[in-house]
Design a protein that fits this description.
The protein is α+β, with helices and mostly antiparallel strands. It is built from eight helices and eight strands. It is 54% helix and 19% strand. The protein has a five-stranded antiparallel sheet with strand order 4-3-2-1-5. It has a three-stranded antiparallel sheet with strand order 6-8-7, covered by helices on one side. The chain starts with a helix and ends in a 16-residue tail after the last helix.
Length: 268
C-alpha cells in the first residue's frame, strides 16, 4: 500500500512538473511571439509595405506563432506528437467544414494582399457599401463612411464583387443634372453653368469643365454639369456647385421648373 502511494505521489509530481513546464512554455512563448512580431514590424522591408498588407501579415504571423506555442506546450505536458497531429488534423478538417466562409474570406484576404485592388486610405464602393478603408485584416476589411459609420465587409465578398475605387486615379469627376425651363435659351444656360464651374473653388482646369444638353423632358430641359477635382475636394466641389448653380440661375432669371398642381374650385 505504501508503495502504491509513493508511485501515485511520483506520478502526481511528474504530472505537476509537466503542467508547470507547459504553462511556462505557453507564457514565455506568447511573450516571445509578441516580441518577434514587434521586431518584424520594425524591419525596413515591412515598413515599405502598404498598411493593409502590414495588417494582414501581422495577423497571419500572430496566428501561426500562437499555434506553434500551443502545440509545443501540449507536447511538453505529455501529449504524444502523433496523437496531437491526429487531433489537430481532425480538428482542422472539422473546423474547415464548419468555417468554409471564414476560409473563403482568408483566401480573399490573400488575393487582396497580392493583387492590390485597393489599399488603406482608398475610398471604394462595393455591393452597396462605400467608405474609406481603415483596415485590412485576415478575414475582414473595415470601411468608414463619410458620416463615421463603420462597415465590416468579409474579404471573400469583396473579391467576388465589383469594386469601384474612387481614389486610384487621383482625381474624381462631379456629375450634376440641372433642370431649366424650356423658355431659357440653351446656349445661355450652358454658358452660365461653365461660369459656375470657373467660379467654384477646387474645380480643375484640365480636364475642362463640360455643360451639355442631356434630355428634353415633359416639363423641363435637363443639362449635364461635369467638372473634375481632387478626390479630397469632391464633396466640397459638389455642394459648392449646387449652391452656386441655384444662386446664379436666380440672378440670371433662369427658371428651375418644379411640379405644380392647379386646383379649381367649382361653386354651385
Amino acid at each position: 500500500m505504501e508503495d502504491f502511494w509513493k508511485q501515485l505521489q511520483q506520478i502526481g509530481t511528474d504530472a505537476g512538473l509537466k503542467i508547470l513546464l507547459g504553462l511556462v512554455i505557453l507564457i514565455v512563448g506568447v511573450k516571445l511571439s509578441k516580441w518577434l512580431i514587434r521586431i518584424i514590424q520594425k524591419g525596413r522591408a515591412f515598413k515599405k509595405l502598404e498598411k493593409g498588407a502590414q495588417s494582414f501579415i501581422t495577423s497571419f504571423i500572430r496566428i501561426a506563432l500562437y499555434a506553434l506555442v500551443i502545440a509545443t506546450a501540449a507536447m511538453c505536458i505529455g501529449v504524444p506528437s502523433t496523437a496531437f497531429l491526429t487531433v489537430f488534423t481532425s480538428a482542422g478538417v472539422a473546423i474547415g467544414l464548419a468555417l468554409q466562409g471564414a476560409l473563403s474570406n482568408f483566401a480573399g484576404g490573400l488575393m487582396i494582399l497580392f493583387f492590390h485592388p485597393f489599399k488603406v486610405g482608398d475610398y471604394i464602393e462595393s455591393d452597396g457599401a462605400s467608405g474609406t478603408i481603415t483596415s485590412i485584416t485576415v478575414i475582414y476589411t473595415i470601411l468608414t463612411t463619410p458620416d463615421n459609420k463603420v462597415i465590416t465587409v468579409p474579404n471573400g465578398k469583396l473579391t467576388n464583387a465589383n469594386i469601384i475605387n474612387y481614389t486610384t486615379g487621383g482625381n474624381r469627376r462631379v456629375d450634376i443634372t440641372v433642370s431649366a425651363s424650356y423658355d431659357a435659351d440653351t446656349e445661355f444656360v450652358k454658358k452660365t453653368l461653365l461660369e459656375v464651374a470657373d467660379a467654384t473653388e477646387g474645380v480643375l482646369k484640365e480636364p475642362a469643365p463640360m455643360a451639355r444638353l442631356k434630355e428634353m423632358g415633359a416639363s423641363s430641359i435637363d443639362y449635364t454639369y461635369r467638372v473634375w477635382c481632387k478626390n479630397s475636394d469632391y464633396w466640397n466641389v459638389y455642394f459648392d456647385s449646387m449652391e452656386l448653380i441655384k444662386k446664379t440661375f436666380d440672378e440670371k432669371g433662369i427658371e428651375i421648373p418644379y411640379t405644380k398642381v392647379d386646383v379649381k374650385l367649382i361653386k354651385d
